[in-house]
Design a protein that fits this description.
Layout lengths: L1 H26 L6 H7 L4 H7 L3 H25 L5 H14 L7 H13 L2 H28 L8 H25 L10 H19 L1
Helix pairs in contact: 1-2, 1-4, 1-6, 2-3, 4-5, 4-7, 5-7, 5-9, 6-7, 6-8, 7-8, 8-9
Length: 211
């Protein structure tokens, strides 16, 4: 019975995350209430509060769900990266972008991005933590490549990881802008043109790391 209860709890929790993401997209974070989320998840308000005390907590849970899924996927790249450092870095970035929780799309990400500036500090910290996590993944990959001799022993891994984190965010932000302006593919982060641009920028960075 305990296993069934745990499954039921997880089902309700996921229903709340899915409902919240949809409502944040449609109504905006500020105009969405816990009561709205409970109704959309087909739960009583009292039951909903057993899982999350605030909609800010729901935002944090969504960030963490995405981060955990991305970490599983990118850890596999770091453990066995392609021999070519340009290919390895591009693969990590592409894997990051192509791995996402199923209930999040561009509109929901935009709402979550705005929520980071409209909510209690915990939500902002969760957003910042997700960004720092990605920088750490690039750092780990670059160190693995350095140990293998694919980048120079004297290369500034810390600075390179931060630059890659900034590049990651740039593509993410452009993805949001394209959605807002009605341009770009419906869901994809990186089309063929963007992948070409990404590779050119990574190639420049790797050239410096090899020097």
């Amino acid at each position: 019975m305990s296993g069934l209860r745990e499954k039921q709890k997880e089902t309700r929790r996921q229903a709340m995350l899915t409902a919240a993401a949809k409502l944040f997209k449609e109504q905006g974070f500020a105009k969405t209430s816990m009561e709205d989320i409970a109704a959309a998840a087909e739960l009583s308000v009292a039951t909903a509060y057993n899982y999350f005390k605030t909609k800010g907590e729901i935002c944090v849970a969504i960030y963490k769900a995405d981060r955990d899924l991305v970490q599983q996927a990118t850890d596999r790249i770091i453990a066995a990266p392609p021999k070519d450092p340009v290919a390895a870095i591009c693969k990590l970035i592409e894997t990051d972008f192509e791995t996402e929780v199923p209930f999040i799309d561009r509109g929901a990400w935009e709402a979550l991005f705005l929520a980071a500036f409209q909510s209690p500090p915990g939500v902002t910290e969760a957003w910042s933590g997700a960004a720092l996590f990605r920088v750490d993944q690039y750092r780990r990959l670059l160190k693995a490549l350095q140990e293998r001799g694919s980048v120079g022993r004297e290369a500034d891994i810390e600075s390179a990881a931060e630059l890659l984190g900034a590049l990651d965010f740039r593509f993410f932000f452009n993805w949001i802008v394209e959605w807002r302006t009605g341009s770009g593919a419906p869901r994809r982060f990186l089309d063929a043109a963007k992948k070409k641009s990404l590779r050119a920028q990574v190639k420049q960075l790797v050239a410096g790391l090899r020097a």
